[in-house]
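Predict structure. Input: Altronate oxidoreductase, 494 residues.
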Amino acid sequence: MEQLSRQRIRSEQIYPERVIQFGEGNFLRGFIDWMLQRMNNKGLFNGSVVAIQPTPSGKVLPKLEEQDYLYTVVLRGVEQGSTIDQEEIISSIHRGINPYTNWAAVLALAENPSLRYIFSNTTEAGLTYKKEVYREGIAPMSYPGKLAVLLYARYRLFSGSLDAGFHIFPCELVEENGAVLQSLVLQASHDFRFPEAFRLWVKTANVFYNTLVDRIVTGYPDESIASFQERLQYRDALLTVGEPYHLFVIEGQQNLEHELPFQEAGLNVHWAAVKPFRDLKVRILNGLHTVMYAMGYLLGLETVKEAMEDPLLEPLIHHCLYEEILPVLPMEDEEKETYAKSVVQRFVNPFNHHRLADLGLNGLSKFKVRVLPTLLDYVEQKKKVPDVLVFALVTNLLYFRVVHREGEAMYGQTDKSIYRLKESEAWLEFLEATWKMYDSSQHSLAHMVATILGNEALWGQNLMQIPQLHQAVLRDLTRLIEDGIKKTLKNDLF
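Output follows.
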């Protein structure tokens, strides 16, 4: 079977380079590059991407090059009651650059005035500060460091012209990601001893947009690739599977609908304040993921869809969404309920195998950001603790009970499996020590719960000050330890 190539699809159309993209992973290829393709298909953008490999160990660019920078996006799911299962060859990436072997090619991009837009997804870790010393001719390791040097090259080539700046759209899932990236670039430029006039140009000639992205992209379908090849009649080493739903919110001081006509191409893009959309996504979609993963995993389930269809969990998830999350979100009821309905539909997508174990990555850190604010709002507004959100906190704590360690690796355990715990070192070290307080007595359990809830450094506040929370957590944890999760839920906990 032949490999995907331009010769195979008989396509010679090459669009001029207009976008620099830091990152070439599944999400960007199934989201931003797919959107650019949609605009190109309608003759609305007529531009292509130069993709820059974000890490030295990247393996995507060589595969893209072998396929003439083509790949397939397959969108599968249920939308407005109809099943979607469609594929499209994406040709919006023109070329790629490995900055660790060809840094000069990256800097040469500064010479092209048509390159005006920068998109990135280097994961949340990519938008963190890393002090570096810049050595001319060698790529900085961090994304903000690379961007600072690229911007400095642009600044020097165009003599500081305000018209030479970029529109920069970070797609990392970090709150106020545009502002964060700008501050990191400014810090890197200071570390690299670039002049103060350049930092002023960064702030005045370039626009860093806060964004929110939303689409589940599961990536390469290892388990079903043979059936996809049979269906497509070609090999694609970068075939990317995602859901039909997509949302892109862009907030900034400039409005670019005429230059980046996403909406005209029929895409779900909003040039608006990010916070209302972020609250919806984080509290509902991400929040429910964090609520359900530990419950489902402790029950022996593997995927979000299984959790949504489990007779014990489905009523809890439904109650949590409609009785605990939605009532305390300060938005119009219709907007909240419409989004909630779309989330439920996405969770039961028969094509997505969204693994609960993957959602457990940094689960307690996620609980702090995604669920705790809703729990606190509920207590403030209803003057009582929310049953399911408290139970989710308890199952998170039980999921992260350290049963043994091998070197730096720590492990938890269910009746069926042993699994590696993935959280910050501070969380895991604390939980390992704290669980050792428990000696099977109720007194030790109460002391352990108080120690966990009272850790202000990890939670950002002392949760022991929340009325009724200690008693509720102790109650649920006692039941889970004595009876196990299945019996606890069968006993009509709520």
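The chain has a mean pLDDT of 93.
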